[in-house]
Amino acid sequence: MKISYRVRFVGGSKYQKSLDTEASAAGIPIPHPPAGDADKAKPRRTKSRSGCKECRTRRVKCDETYPVCLRCQRRGSICRSATRPVQWHTEMPWLSHSVVLDSWTGHATPNKRLVQFWIEQTSHMMALDRNNNPLSLPLLQYLAACPSLLHAVQSVSAGHETFFSSESLRTCLEERGLALKLLREEVQDPGQMSISSMLTVFVLGVSSPWIELRPNAYGKEHLDGARALIKHMLSHKRMREDSLAKFLLGWYLYWDMSSSFLDTTEGASRSEADDIVAVLHSDDCFHPMIGFSSELYALVATVGRHCRWVLENETTLPGLEQDLRDRLLAWQPGHHDKHLVNLSLAYRNHGILMLYRTCETPVASACKTSSEETQPGDTAETECAVRSLVLESICMMLKTPLSEPCANFQSLPLLSAGAELMSTDEELRNNVKARFKGLYSSSRVMVNMWAIELLEELWDLHDCGVNVSWIDLCTTKGWNLCFS
């Protein structure tokens, strides 16, 4: 006897409907699943409201892990996450009903949405602690009194919201132009310049490279202006005692350090740097942008400028370079926060690596005692010490979760250490690239993607036997990578 089979298609399909119609016409009963089975077979899906752009494009559910979702981590792709809702935002929508900006006397009406985005999102990429950030809530009182600062903040906020995409910079550039115009009016009398206007110079200057299509400019004119303002601030005791002024002093140290290898323009003199460090140490307190590392950053800035000078003049100063190396090795972090200590040590190693690769300054091995100095001809020992510093830096930085605010400050030492990785370090190279992608997802600043491009080109050269430093390659390409 021939056995016949009936194939049942998914309910609702055109094939199943035609079979059901034929069966009904022939008087054959049609089995139907219990009413509850259909609901059990199709579990209810929670719609992702803050999924990243990559997952939305692929039409897959995003787990919304910030700053890089798990799917993007597995794919190794760039995660452009949506803006995360602030937990207390629905309970206290303070800014939309705030009277702080309602007394505004400027020409253009404040964009409260961009101001709120700055306070809740953008400002935190420039601070080590979300709960101690002068650029967030405490900034409101200065925005109401300084039109240029308001529009500078709105400019950066508009750019940050769109990952500084060149196709979406219209609002950013319009606000920036207005901020520059108002700033020129405010600084007509430099002697009467307010702290708020000085802060405008910093916001516009630091964000200047973020809106560039390629890494060709780094805001040199803004940095020069900031140097003049810092000198003015240091000469007025009453001004430098202001809490915002102290924040600007620390911010300047970081900005100067991260730009120091881009040109040989004299930054803060040794005495001025010492004065800044003394002012910041007078309170013996944590600085929201540089932590407890003011002395270290001033020293690394000196190293960066000297290395650029050596490249341009093709000569070295062994006595000075040895002194700089010894001072870096002698520096120790004066605090116990694990992630901040790792960040500080990574910057210290960055300074030592720059001295070695640019000036061929011997690097003391961790295995040697202080009395056993590494000699200039001891190449194998020096290379071993360099290798140790590189692995130490990368290991420390990768241990810091991307969710930690201090991770946003890793780019420069990560590039310096990553540039030393060899062809046998394929896994570490991939980890470094993944970290830079994560930093881009977090900060939304393109310099992190340009760093990957530079490293890949540098690694190819090294694998072919061409010995060149990352600073040499930047100079050859005409790049100015600014990590401020």
TrEMBL record:
Gene3D superfamilies in the record: Zn(2)-C6 fungal-type DNA-binding domain
PROSITE patterns attached to this UniProt entry: ZN2_CY6_FUNGAL_1, ZN2_CY6_FUNGAL_2
CDD domains: GAL4
Keyword Nucleus part of the UniProt annotation: yes
GO molecular function: DNA-binding transcription factor activity, RNA polymerase II-specific; transcription cis-regulatory region binding; zinc ion binding
InterPro entries: Fun_TF, Zn2-C6_fun-type_DNA-bd_sf, Zn2Cys6_DnaBD
Entry annotated with the keyword Ribonucleoprotein: no
GO CC term, one of those recorded: nucleus
Span list, region Disordered: 25-50
One GO BP: positive regulation of transcription by RNA polymerase II
Taxonomic superkingdom: Eukaryota
Compartment(s): Nucleus
TM region positions: none
Residue ranges of domain Zn(2)-C6 fungal-type in the record: 51-81
Keywords associated with the record: Nucleus
Name used for this protein in its record: Fungal-specific transcription factor domain-containing protein
Species for this entry: Thelonectria olida
Organism lineage: Eukaryota, Fungi, Dikarya, Ascomycota, Pezizomycotina
